[in-house]
Structures are given as C-alpha cells and as structure tokens.
Design goal:
203 residues, mainly alpha, elongated, disordered C terminus
Length: 203
C-alpha cells in the first residue's frame, strides 16, 4: 500500500493541480533514469517509480473529483438538473467528461439509460453502483425497483433494448431502444420519479 500520496510528491494536498502535475513529471523523469542504474540504486529507482505512479493515480482521482464538483455543481447536482429537465444528451455528455467513475457516477448513468428505456443497461449500472458502495440504500432500493419493473407482466421483454438472450432486436434504432413500452407502467413511473428525486417515495 502506497504511503500518503501527496507525501510521495513532497507537496501539500492543497497545492495547485499544475504544481502537483509538474512535480509528478519531474520525479517520474528522475526515477525513470535511476531504475536503469546497476545494483541496489537501480532497484530503488524502480521501486520509487512504482510508488510514484500509484500515488499519482490516487491524486489524479482527487483532482478529477474536484473538477467534477466545480463544473457540475457538486455531487452531480447539475447532471441531476439536466436529467430532470429532460436534457438527456447533455447529461450524458457531462457524465462522459467525468473520469472518476465512482458509485454515484454509475447511479446517474443508470438514470440516463432508464430515461431512454434501456433497462438492461440501466440495471447493469445500478449493479455496479451497489458493488462499489454496497451500504448505500439509495442504490439498492433503485435496483430493487428496477428489477420489479423488468419482471412486471406489463413490460414486454422484447422491448427492453434487446432479446432476453442478449441479442439485439432486428431493425431496432439504437436511439429508440424500448420505445415507449413504459409509458403506461405505474411501477416504471414510480422508479423514474424516485431516481430523479434521489429516492423520494412516489405517491
């Protein structure tokens, strides 16, 4: 396990992103040359280079998370607003720009897929969210409700974005997967309402 990542760079956690990246590149060049030296000095260079890369991966995740919060209003607030406004393409574009794809990212991706009636893909994203954060009741409740919708007799399995065996429907427009199969499904409406209001109970 790598020690505190910012200490590997010799900088404070509050250092600017540009300074952190510059220090990373500087140390990478030093250790990259050192690893080719003979004996223990070369081994030490290789060890430090590996430690540096692990530390930078953790730091980069922090930087990406901070950037996402600044850009999208924090905790995916702006993406939530885009979904509620029916701007699914914009919400998807915003999600695509986030490189730190944590449990919350997969949760919001599931909502976008659900809004497009891509239920199978929505379920996969919720399952990923639960796997990454198994103690989060919001994710587990959404997944349970989605499974209920997909198992409902009111939903035709042929219109869930593909055949039950996973094969794509013939002559199916990818942008219209599932069509309007959920338009009159009360359970589906409740799930959508719950997801978009962060699991508030539907009436």
């Amino acid at each position: 396990m790598v020690k505190e990542p910012y200490k590997v760079l010799g900088l404070d956690k509050d250092a600017p992103a540009e300074q952190l990246e510059a220090k990373y590149n500087e140390l990478k060049a030093i250790y990259g040359e050192q690893r080719f030296l003979a004996g223990e000095e070369g081994n030490e260079g290789a060890r430090k280079l590996m430690e540096l890369e692990e530390a930078w991966s953790m730091i980069k995740s922090d930087l990406d998370r901070l950037e996402a919060k600044e850009k999208f209003g924090g905790d995916f607030g702006q993406i939530d607003n885009l979904i509620k406004s029916g701007k699914y393409d914009e919400a998807q574009a915003a999600l695509d720009e986030i490189t730190d794809r944590n449990a919350e990212w997969h949760y919001f991706q599931s909502i976008v897929f659900y809004k497009r009636d891509w239920l199978t893909e929505s379920r996969k994203q919720l399952e990923q969210a639960v796997e990454l954060d198994p103690r989060n009741d919001k994710y587990k409740t959404a997944l349970d409700k989605l499974k209920m919708v997909m198992g409902s007799a009111d939903v035709n399995p042929q219109t869930l974005g593909g055949q039950p065996n996973g094969q794509a429907m013939p002559q199916q427009d990818p942008g219209m997967m599932g069509g309007n199969c959920l338009a009159n499904c009360c359970c589906a409406y409740c799930l959508t309402d719950c997801c978009c209001n962060l699991m508030q109970c539907c009436g």
